[in-house]
Design goal:
By secondary structure, the chain is an alpha+beta fold. It has a domain at 95-267: 60s Ribosomal Protein L30, Chain: A (2-Layer Sandwich). The protein has eight helices and six strands, in the order ααααββααβαβαββ. A six-stranded mixed β-sheet has the order 1-2-5-3-4-6. The chain is elongated. The relative contact order is 0.11.
């Protein structure tokens, strides 16, 4: 009599073995990716610290330059910047979020300091395309057709200079007018008036040693950058202004800015 061979039972759960292997490999992949990310972050910090130590050893920056909270009361014109070293070294190009945070802090401080001027609508502060814009209305700072700041506005300008002098950012001073033509013994056009107002404030900051000349520039735009309509008296009053643009120290490709006009500017105003 032939012996019956028992049939093997089919296991329907063998796919779990392959699935477990796949999950294990996937977990290992994510662990490796995370390890690489942490390694890159450590290298970035090490490079920043190495550059910082090198400049401190050369005596270019002090040891307190990375401690912004301790220099909050440092008078303007000293060589102890308030902002961290990573911004001074140009890390703002790699960390735009940090730059935005710093500019927001400057904006809040200036709003508190200039609360009366803001309430009187002679000063406005807002974030613009290139950076923080501090707009000075003509009514609070200049007589009509004049480029000499009013005597009563010098205190406000000194307060602004003191705040901006403790930052590592560049300052571009822009003069703007309305579209009403001007022709006087001093100024033949709005170009000259707007440029003279910007340059006069730049010279005032330099005379007070508030902002280093390598961080300062002046530009005149005449009536070609209005912020309001020139068809009304209120709109023309808003257009007659001087804007202080606080901007990071980055190289800009002019072909990518889309500016519709040439910029008249002077760097390192010394005369």
């Amino acid at each position: 009599m032939r012996r019956r061979v028992p049939r093997s039972r089919i296991n329907h759960e063998r796919w779990l073995v392959s699935y477990a292997d796949f999950i294990t490999l996937l977990f290992g992949l994510f662990v490796v990716l995370y390890a690489f990310a942490r390694a890159d972050e450590k290298k970035h910090v090490q490079v920043t610290e190495a550059i910082d130590d090198a400049f401190r050893s050369l005596g270019i920056f002090s040891d307190t330059s990375r401690q912004p909270g301790k220099n909050a009361n440092t008078p303007a014109g000293t060589d102890q910047p308030v902002m961290p070293m990573n911004i001074v070294m140009g890390e703002d190009v790699l960390a735009p979020t940090k730059v935005k945070q710093d500019l927001e802090n400057i904006r809040r401080e200036l709003q508190q300091t200039l609360s009366n001027q803001i309430a009187q609508h002679t000063v406005s502060i807002l974030m613009g395309r290139d950076g923080l814009v501090i707009s000075l209305r003509e009514a609070g700072f200049f007589a009509s057709g004049s480029a000499t700041p009013r005597t009563e506005s010098l205190t406000t300008l000194a307060q602004i200079a003191a705040k901006l002098g403790r930052t590592p950012y560049d300052l571009r001073i822009e003069g703007h007018t309305d579209n009403v033509p001007i022709h006087t013994l001093e100024f033949d056009s709005n170009w000259e008036l707007s440029s003279a107002r910007a340059t006069r404030i730049a010279r005032l900051f330099l005379d007070r040693k508030a902002i280093p000349p390598e961080r300062l520039s002046a530009a005149g735009y005449a009536e070609f950058h209005p912020v309001a309509s020139n068809s009304t008296a209120d709109g023309r009053a808003e257009n007659r202004r001087v804007d202080l643009v606080v901007k990071p120290r980055t190289k800009i490709n002019l072909s990518d800015t889309g500016l519709p006009h040439p910029e008249v500017s002077w760097r390192k105003i010394t005369d």
